[in-house]
Design brief:
Largest sheet: none
Number of strands: 0
Helix content: 55-70%
Shape: globular
Order of helices and strands: HHHHHHHHHHHH
Distance between the termini: 57 Å
């Protein structure tokens, strides 16, 4: 729910802020939130230079870049559509896990799932309607952002989460790294930031919620999920966040939804399910047994065997 409604807050934020400053604000507020939790729980930041190097990579690829891409994308497409594109994260994780991280292998089932998922992507795009213009650019940016998560999740699992550093400390390091990156990039992309007093209450509230919840608390939960259940299972949150994003976009922002966008999202998720081997088994009904009226003459009463 936190990540699903984050697309709504991004949409509100980019009304008055450049996407780069939306990212800088949310990662800075997220870092402050985690640092406060670290102080309350008396935990320390990572000390290993190796961990910090990996957190810097994860902060750039898994936080700064996708957050900024979603901001640019939502300048061109509705927030609910950005949420639907987030569902492609597990689909993009598979080829990267096979080709880049070499933690999985291609099978016929996985290739079939990828083909189904790709067909779902074409449906979401509505290719038969003649896709083009800024809407296509915005959708491709959202897809690229989801792909960044596909790189960051297995990267964190392989190089970071298996350490003895707490989830809070890891997220704090990741957010501090992303804040440092965006503090340099944002002024280069957008010039000087606007004065906080010039922002509307809606934008200020959205940035606080996006930073403290969507970038602080949610990432702690996500980091713990990666550590406990693995990268693939942790990426399954993208099954649920598009639903929340669509509901929030329609109910709160009054956004419109064409029929093929949610249908394409369902096809993408079906492809993800096939590629990951999800099975739906019908539970067999118990066969009614006749009431016992006495000892069964076909069973030896001593050995209890027929």
């Amino acid at each position: 729910m936190i990540w699903g409604t984050s697309f709504l807050f991004i949409k509100v934020g980019v009304r008055e802020l450049h996407p780069a400053y939306v990212t800088l604000t949310r990662v800075a507020l997220g870092a402050v939130t985690i640092l406060i939790l670290l102080a309350v729980l008396r935990q320390k930041l990572p000390r290993s230079p190796r961990i910090w190097a990996h957190l810097a990579v994860a902060g750039a690829i898994g936080v700064a870049l996708p957050f900024t891409l979603y901001g640019y994308g939502e300048q061109r497409v509705p927030s609910l559509l950005a949420g639907i594109w987030n569902a492609t994260t597990p689909l993009a994780t598979l080829p990267l896990a096979v080709l880049l991280f070499r933690t999985e292998r291609f099978t016929a089932r996985k290739l079939l799932g990828l083909a189904i998922g790709f067909a779902g992507v074409l449906v979401v795009l509505g290719v038969w309607t003649g896709v083009g213009g800024s809407a296509l650019t915005g959708q491709l940016m959202c897809f690229a952002a989801a792909t960044c998560y596909s790189v960051a999740i297995p990267y964190m699992k392989r190089f970071v989460t298996d350490s003895d550093v707490s989830e809070l400390a890891l997220v704090a390091g990741q957010m501090l790294s992303a804040t440092a990156v965006m503090a340099v990039i944002a002024p280069l992309l957008a010039g000087a930031p606007p004065a906080p007093t010039s922002l509307s209450p809606e934008v200020v509230g959205s940035m606080v919620a996006l930073g403290a919840l969507g970038t602080g608390v949610a990432f702690v939960i996500h980091m713990r999920n990666i550590r406990l259940v693995g990268a693939t299972a942790a990426s399954l949150v993208t099954y649920l966040s598009p639903v929340c994003a669509v509901v929030a976009g329609v109910v709160v922002l009054g956004e419109s939804l064409t029929w093929y966008q949610p249908v394409g999202g369902l096809v993408v998720l079906a492809g993800v399910a096939v590629s990951q081997g999800v099975r739906w088994r019908r539970r067999a009904r118990p066969v009614p047994q006749p009431a016992a009226t006495g000892p069964d003459p076909t069973i030896d009463p001593v050995s209890a065997k027929p």
